[in-house]
Amino acid sequence: MTSKEWFADWFDTSYYHTLYKSRNEDEATEFIANLLSFLQLEKKSKVLDLACGKGRHAVTLNEHGYKVLGVDLSPNSICKANEKQNESLSFAVHDMRQVIEGQKFSAIFNLFTSFGYFDTLYDNECVIRSMNEMLEKDGYLIIDFMNAQKVIDNLVENEVKVVDGIVFYLTRNYDGNHIFKNIRFNAEDKEFHYTERVQALKEKDFVQLLTENKFEIIRTFGDFSLNVFNEKSSDRLIIIAKKI
């Protein structure tokens, strides 16, 4: 990892959490409940929340009776998440491209478009291979990604958001490979500029990536209620895969 990777910088700022503070907690809780109902994991199973942020999904998984480790690249996010730790819920700073040595999980959750941040397809493969190695036999991988096609078709090029008195100027574009969000704002008498860059991965891209790296795709859903995926209309691309 180098300091040039945009996510290592932007995700570790307080302004990132300010911009996205309105995320729907009830929706996230319902999503986890729906996933667990589908997966039917044994209680007290050990699960990993990979790219956990401040731990909202990890906490919910723990409340359902699972032993949870949440990891994220952002030290500030993990510091905040650690306020919620208990005997069966822990957090650590970790790069998802690397295996967590000595750990095996019944399921790995990678939620809220926490994939595709890297510059190369090789990095994507590193993530998937690490996930496979960390899973127990027949373990589940859950990837919740944006529906890139719908995002591209409905791209909002310019937007202004005011959050906690900070005016965020957002511009978006698509270059054929990545979806970009440029974020400009002034705070504390300084001007800031960050750029989010996410690979516009489609269903076929994930199918290829997973099947070539020892996963079998079990189901694909299109929203947090686990309705059938439709590339044109679904809000999300949610993939349930099993290690083979």
**Number of DSSP strands?**
11
Largest sheet: 7 strands, mixed
Query: Structurally, how many domains make up the residues?
Result: 2
Spans of 5+ residues with little confidence (pLDDT < 50)? none
Strand order of the largest sheet: 3-2-1-4-5-11-10
Helix/strand order: HHHEHEHEEHEHEEEEHEE
What percentage of amino acids are in beta strands? 25-35%
Please give the radius of gyration in angstroms.
18 Å
**CATH level 4 superfamily of the largest domain:** Vaccinia Virus protein VP39
**Broad shape:** globular
Mean pLDDT score? 95
State the end-to-end distance. Answer: 29 Å
Any idea what the CATH architecture of the largest domain is?
3-Layer(aba) Sandwich
Helix content: 25-40%
Describe, in short, the structure shown.
The protein is an alpha/beta fold. It has helices at residues 6-10, 14-19, 25-39, 56-63, 75-81, 121-134, 148-153, 203-211, and strands spanning 46-50, 67-72, 89-93, 105-110, 135-146, 158-163, 166-174, 178-187, 190-199, 215-221, 236-243.
Structural key phrases:
alpha/beta; 11 strands; seven-stranded mixed sheet; single chain; Rossmann fold; 8 helices
Task: Provide structural commentary.
The chain folds into 2 domains: 183 residues, Vaccinia Virus protein VP39 (Rossmann fold); 46 residues, no CATH class. It is globular, with a radius of gyration of 18 Å. Helix 5 links the parallel strand 2 and strand 3. The model has no long low-confidence stretch (mean pLDDT 95). The chain contains 8 helices and 11 strands. The strands form 2 sheets. Strands 3-2-1-4-5-11-10 form a 7-stranded mixed beta sheet, sandwiched between helices. It is α/β, with parallel strands linked by helices and 244 residues long. The two termini are 29 Å apart.
